[in-house]
Amino acid sequence: MKRINLLPPEQRVKAARELGAMYALFGLLLLVVVLGVIYVWQNGRISEKQGRVTALQADAQQAENQTAALQPYETLQSQRTSMADTAQQIYDSRVIWSSILQEISLVIPDTVQLTAINAAVPPSMLAGGQLVGGQGGTSSTADITFTGNAMTHTDVAEFMTRLGLLPQVENIKLTSSTLTLVGNTALPLFVLTVQLRPFLVAPPLSAAGTSTAPLPTATAAATSTPGASP
Q: What is the pTM of this model?
């Protein structure tokens, strides 16, 4: 059976407008609900990420605190390494008197007798010292002084020649050589001076940052008789 709308045209238009407004209101309400859901979802994600950022910041702060707590140990390790390197350099640049005196004893002629040896390390070869002349030049003072007598002046010259063969010394000079009566024999009494060959590089500073004290002068007296090696 066919349905017939008996409403006047004005009422039909009004009813259509009301139905359209209801649909529009329903659509607006649905949009508000969807936007609310999206807002809640995004707010949850933001809160989650903010929590992660806060946790990462706390971890970073903890790591910084641990680093700051370990900083004194790093400083101590750095100082220890520096002191060990300096000590090794000082040890490597030391003057080995036992080796020098041993080699000197091997080149003394049988006809030469030493009565005294005075030796001292020059300031330029001590820890913290500066190279003389800037490039390993020699100083003007004697580092080792030999006092003794020989059978002849030729024996003194022979001793000087043999000293020149030693790699640790240089600038061998005869300070004096005079005939002196020993018993009933006139023997040349001589004084020789030599210098230690300087280091190629300046010695390092000591661990405290200052140079070490000079070594005391060593004096060795020979007890052998003329004509025999000490």
A: 0.51
